[in-house]
Structure formats: structure tokens, C-alpha cells
Amino acid sequence: MKIVKKTAFILGFICSPMIIAAGPSINEMNSCVALVDFVDTKLDEFADQYPADEITLVHKGLSGYSDYLKEDVISPKVLQMYGGNATQAALMHRLFDKQKATFFKHLNERYTKKKLFTEYAAAINDCSAKTRLSAGTAKDLNVALDLMIRHARQK
User: Fold this and answer.
1) How is the chain split into domains, by residue range?
2) If 0-12 CB within 10 Å is exposed, 13-18 middle and 19+ buried, where does residue 32 land?
């Protein structure tokens, strides 16, 4: 019986990090939202360089993905983390907003040219791989990423 208990304890100890790490962290997903929102905002600065209908599709894909992350991934996790305490969750969301502003500042300093970069699409694609998207959101995001890559390579 002792061997069974020890084996169960060791197995649980070994597997617990995998269970905890199975999903993306709230901070990772918040960084993804900040990146997606940054690119979506930055797109307006140079939209005149690309076909308007394609810019609309990129905006649709990015905003849909951002909304999905905020509403379906981050908000439920934050609320769960605080045991359903909406006040605490709101405070955490304000902290995320401050972090997002800092993130925007650093990205604006790094990406001063008014054009699309393949790095944007690659980073957003990496983010999307960490979550399970609905079919519609995934389709719109893939269209947006494909257009971003195509335009980044043209300019």
C-alpha cells in the first residue's frame, strides 16, 4: 500500500507542472491582445498604401481575434483566478490596460516605418496556436495573416 501511495504521489508531482502549463497563462494571452491591438491600430497609419477592401479584412480578423481573447479566454480566467470576485477582476483588467500602454510604447519605438512586417503576422500566429479558436474567428484571422504576409513581402 505504501508503494502505491508513493507512486501516486510521485506521478502526481511529475504530472502537475504539465497540467498547470497545459493552457497559456493570462499574461501570455494579455500580451497577445496587446500585440493584436497594436497591429490593428498601427494599420490605420498606413492603410492608404494597401487596397481598402483588404485592410478591412485584416481589421476584421484582428479585431475578432482580440475580442475572442478578451471575452472568451482572459476574462473567464481572471474571474476564475479571483474566485468570481468581479471587483478584483476589474482591477486586474486595469493593470492589463497599463501594461498594454507600455507595450504599445515599446513597439512604436521599435517599428517606426509605416508598413506591415512579417514579424507581426508570425507573432500573432504564434499566439493563435496557444488557443482553440472558433471556426469563424480562425478563418477571419487566417485571411488577415495571409494578407499581412503578402503585403509585407511586396513592400
Assistant:
1) 24-154
2) buried
